[in-house]
Prior knowledge:
2 copies of one chain form a homodimer.
Chain A: H1 3-10, H2 14-22, E1 30-33, E2 36-38, H3 41-56, H4 61-72, H5 78-89, H6 99-112, H7 122-136, H8 140-144, H9 146-165, H10 170-210
Antiparallel strand pairs in A: 1-2
Helix pairs in contact in A: 3-10, 4-5, 5-10, 6-7, 6-9, 9-10
Amino acid sequence: MRIGELSARTGVPAATIKYYVREGLLSSGERRSHNQVEYGEAHVRRLRLVRALVETGSLPIATVREVLAKIADREGNLDSTLGVVAPVLTPAPATEPGERYLELALAAMERQGWHRVNPGIPQVRALAEVLERLELLGLGDMVDRIDEYAAAAESAAASDLRLLGTRVERDEILETMILGTVLGDALFSALRRIAQVEMSGRTFKARERQRPEPEDC
Amino acid sequence: MRIGELSARTGVPAATIKYYVREGLLSSGERRSHNQVEYGEAHVRRLRLVRALVETGSLPIATVREVLAKIADREGNLDSTLGVVAPVLTPAPATEPGERYLELALAAMERQGWHRVNPGIPQVRALAEVLERLELLGLGDMVDRIDEYAAAAESAAASDLRLLGTRVERDEILETMILGTVLGDALFSALRRIAQVEMSGRTFKARERQRPEPEDC
Lengths: 217, 217
């Protein structure tokens, strides 16, 4: 297909496609004549992946390039490649979390039975850093309830992994995992906000019913 | 307290504090003499809220100002104020979702029994837009599994609301709700990524055990 069709099928403007090719995020098409370059289905898939990472995941171009390099690197088994890609998708904490919060994070993981997780991975530091911020901001009771949130997260992650289970090809598994992580955050956050509205309606309506009417005071 | 102590207690540099005052995100302290301004506990709390919204929530200054104005506006009951603040915290979808995806979102809400949610709120459009993106990117099976994610989101939202239930003061309830939304996304996303590592280890280790060793082929 020509660049116009590639653009139409992915929703990415032709100028942006050319920019991605220059930046090495997309292989160039096959040149057929001096003014015609041919693109294939692999370009469609790759372009959608890049777009999701840049637009939904708000990842910098350099990080996207790093993720794509991990996919292209055929060394190492799938599990280790997943282990290499995942931290790239986790924003590194701005500050190093305190020892106490690392311990809180590890204790929560222990209670959930998450024994296969290497305690040194950046995702654990990211969790500790959130716990620290929560406590600083007066939401220490959210930290106390971490097990409830961990159980909900485990249930979401189990669904994520069932998606991967239906993929067979290595690249497809990796792409699904990456898209599922980036878009999965957006999906869960949208659902949680709607659920909050529902629960808030139930809670505060109930409170108001219990309260005597102003006329009675 | 002086600006130096306010800065030390909140981790916000003095220059940034002055910037927030100029931008109307923080009321100015009480001037005691020509070179001494006194700040109180209300400034500490407000500054932490602003910092969380700007740094963790990555909200633009204008949006933070809007959120603070909603808190300051004493008109309307708590439930309606929560209803006004929440959409501000939900990034508006970049594109209007297709009708089909709005219907998918509403059907999922119906199945969850979320009957108190007004279908016209921006959070529902945000969900529909994520569903549309998922399908475009070849993750239609994540859309098919929306009920699993909705159940996990409901359980997280129920925990969120239990946090609010321990707050009595109107401003404290609103602040907790706002911080809980912004930091709650970060908390859940960190937990989910760790849970994914755990589940991935379980799944792919199991697959490898089932596979015959290369020597046997």
